[in-house]
Amino acid sequence: MSPEFFSGHLRSTLFFSTLLFFVIHSSSQSDQRQSLLEFKSTLVNSKVLNSWNEENNVCNFTGIVCNSDEEVKEVNLSQQQLAGTLAFDSLCSLKSLERISLGSNLLSGTVSTRLSDCRNLQYLDLGMNFFSGEVPDLSSLTQIKFLSLNLSGFSGQFPWKSLENLTNLTFLSLGDNPFDESPFPLEILKLQNLNSLYLTNCTIGGTIPEGIENLTLLESLQLSDNNLVGEIPVGVTKLKNLQMLELYNNGLSGILPVGLSSLVNLAQFDVSTNNLHGDLSELKNLTRMESLQLFENSFSGTIPQEFGEFKFLKQFSIYDNKFIGELPAKIGSWAEFEYIDVSQNYLSGGIPPEMCKMGKMTKLLMLENNFTGGLPENYAGCSSLIRLRVSNNSLSGRVPDGIWSLPNLSMIDLEMNQFEGPLPANIGEARSLAQIFLANNRFSGELPMEISNVSSLVEIELSSNQFSGEIPATIGGLKKLSNIRLQDNMFSGAIPESLGSCVSLSEINLASNSLSGQIPDNLGSLASLNLLNLSGNKLTGVIPSSLSSLKLTLIDLSNNMLIGRVPQPLLLVAYNGSFAGNPGLCADGSKDLRECSPVSRKSSHVRVAMYCFIAGALLLLLSLSYFLFVKLSKIDHKSPITRGCSWDVKQFHVLKFSEDEVLRSITQENIIGKGGSGNVYKVDLKCGEQLAVKHMWKSEPDSDSWKGSRSSAAILPKEKTLWPEYEAEVAALSSLRHMNVVKLYCSISSEDSNLLVYEYMPNGSLWDRLHTNKKINMDWGVRYEIAMGAARGLEYLHHGCERPMLHRDVKSSNILLDEELKPKLADFGLAKIVQTGKRMDSTHMIAGTHGYIAPEYGYTSNVTEKSDIYSFGVVLMELVTGKKPVDPVFGENKDIVYWVHEEMRAKDDMFSLVDSTITKDAKEDAVKMLNIAVHCTMKLPALRPSMRMVVKMLEEIEPDSLTDIVIEKGVESVIPDCKKPSMN
Ligand SMILES: *[C@@H]1O[C@H](CO)[C@@H](O)[C@H](O)[C@H]1NC(C)=O
Ligand SMILES: *[C@@H]1O[C@H](CO)[C@@H](O)[C@H](O)[C@H]1NC(C)=O
Predict the structure, then answer these.
(1) Residue 622 CA neighbour count, 13 Å, CB half
(2) Active-site residue (options: 125, 320, 488, 809)
(3) CA angle, corner 57, sides to 56 and 62, nearest 5?
(4) 57 C-beta closer than 6 A to ligand 1
(5) Which CATH superfamily does the domain covering 648-955 fall into?
(6) Tens of pLDDT along 208-258?
(7) Which of 33, 50, 60 to mutate to test the pocket of ligand 1 (most atoms within 8 A of CB)?
(8) Residue 694 annotated as binding?
(9) Where do the structural domains in the chain lie, given as residue ranges?
(10) Single GO cellular component annotation (predicted)?
(11) 729 FRET partner, CA 20 to 30 A, in 48, 306, 425, 666?
């Protein structure tokens, strides 16, 4: 063979094999591209996938990793704000796929059983999404090592059986999904390679099996927030590699298992909120411990002294148990210790002195024990400290000076001890101090003037001490001060004039001191003042008439040396003894006080008569209603009008109008709306402003209907039990301050009816603007802002205060629009008020409105925030589609929720669902909002996102055109001190 032939042959072989390679290669390229583009087509927010197109090599697609043969091996698209559904039929046709990472997105829909075609999968992360339906069978994923499905909306029965042969699994995370209740899945016990198991909050009941001991490689075992009962099995003590063991919030009982002490690697141990008892001797050798959480159990015995030598301990929380004895002196002195909470035990001895040695401690919480000794000097240098609470112990001595000026300290609570000494001047350097509680100690000396520099102060509670001298004249500098309680001390001198400049004050208690001089006139300008107690002092002069303009729930000026006439309006809020022990005081028509001179008596009669005339006129007007005719006929004929005299006014904001002005405007021609609970009137004030007044009837409360009512009623004075639930609720509503919540100015009530006075919203309701003849063209930006604003308002109701407040009647007609079309929620909580007030026709008063009512109303009385979220989802659908919640076009007995869900599922042209007036370029965003609405209206309440989440999701789809504009985002949404101080 000639060399030429040879080389020619070689060349042609090469040529053909290259051609062959090219053909195979390009076909694989196009198949893979085809699959990936199909996968992309069901995703909604796919800007990130712009590189996924017909031109690029698939191995160059964003998030794609190929193997050396240019076959797709990995899809890495977690945290990309992807929405839409997953086409596993396309994705799993990629035969070399080993890794799918799609966690922390906005993905929804069900996960197809075609997932089982991904047979080479080693890594699957679908966690933190919004899927629905059940998890499909996983048994074919025999190569899988990492499986994360936590917090992704799955429900129904989890296919536990399908895990039994997936023995390569090292990481398994299924928690935070509302699966159907199941006993502890025994299949898990076969997964002997597991080193991390997260089954927190997925409805597992029964006991933890002894067989858990098989999982010897486990480093992290988390079974918290389930319904587990019985004892912690001894098997757990065989898991020598455990670093984290979390079992909190179950129903576990018994003692800590014998042998736990052999888990020498344990660093995070949390069994809080169970029913465990016994002592902690099993923990004393666990020297790697970093975080020990044992609170809310019934543990007893002493704290092992060995804890004092734990070199890594950073968090120690054992509150609400039955521990006795002393804390180890050196606890928390080694690592960067963060907090201790040993409150509510029977501990004694001194406060360990070195917990802030590394300068990281933020919380020292030791309330309700029997600790003795002083506050260690060391803490005077603990600049990281935020909360210092040692109330209700037997601590004594002087507080180290440096404590008072710690730069980050927000709360200092030393109440109910025997501390002594002065409050030093360096308190003026405190930069973050909001609450100072020193009541019931032996503090003495003068209140330093420098306290007026602590502009962050909200509460000062110094009662029952031995403070003396004058209240600093500069106190008016404290503009955030809400409560000042100095009662039961020895303060003297005059009440400083400047107290009237503390504009946020709601409570002033200076009782039982030796204050003299006159009551400052300007206290009458404290618009939010609610309680004023100056009793038991040596105050002189007359009661300033300015106090009449306050709307107080309690005033006590008794046992002073006041003289003259008690202003008439104050008599309304006074209780019997409010003015007692002031021989010089008189009043007109009060049985407790001496009558004033006859001249003024006459004039007051005139005034009373006028009230009665106005009220009577109102009653007559209202008597148009048949309902009232019936009632009137039952009333004693001699005094039909006196009933109406007792209008009780509760004011929550600074008012520029009088109740008379409001009452006069409650006439037929001023009606602007009629609702189930009453009519709404528009009131034009003389000053040019406008109000909306909602009038509601009440009937005799059925005594049983509020007997067992919640304790919230207790926030009002006991003597006013006209309709306690109503009043408490109104008081709660009135405390709300948010720019997306309509302001309730005041409530005016008589025995028959209530008037709620709101700010007037000139652009009517969203319903009007979407669906009626007042309809206007709203572009996408406006609709988005309305959705966002309403969402923030509702988020505030749900999360803004400690007790979540339900709206109960979220609908577009309760979303009102101001002159700039900014939305505000109205009528919140009223459904409940109306219900508990038990109108005669209470059967008609279902909470909520047809078309907006979440399905669970049908089968449970346990209505939660999630029901509001359903209704809000309906509003979002209205905004996007422009359609009404109930409309014949959806088909018989079908509503907008059914229609949108069906259309989204059919995933045809989703743009066709969007209101035709919305411009093309906004339609993609509109579909995203619709997607959020679908989440909000899931049938199972647990699958609906929280309002906080909804706000976050809406923020993510903010139109580009709005991002440049500075939008006031919840400026008012943070109410200082809305939350009451929590244990932690
Ligand atoms: C991927 O893209 C880069 C530049 O964007 C290009 O240089 C490279 O050749 C591409 N690779 C393939 C395999 O197409
Ligand atoms: C696990 O493997 C066993 C033995 O091969 C088999 O009988 C069983 O059906 C498998 N389980 C599942 C859920 O596939």
Answers:
(1) 29
(2) 809
(3) 75
(4) yes
(5) Transferase(Phosphotransferase) domain 1 (1.10.510.10)
(6) 999 999 999 999 999 999 999 999 999 999 999 999 999 999 999 999 999
(7) 60
(8) yes
(9) 602-633, 648-955
(10) membrane
(11) 666
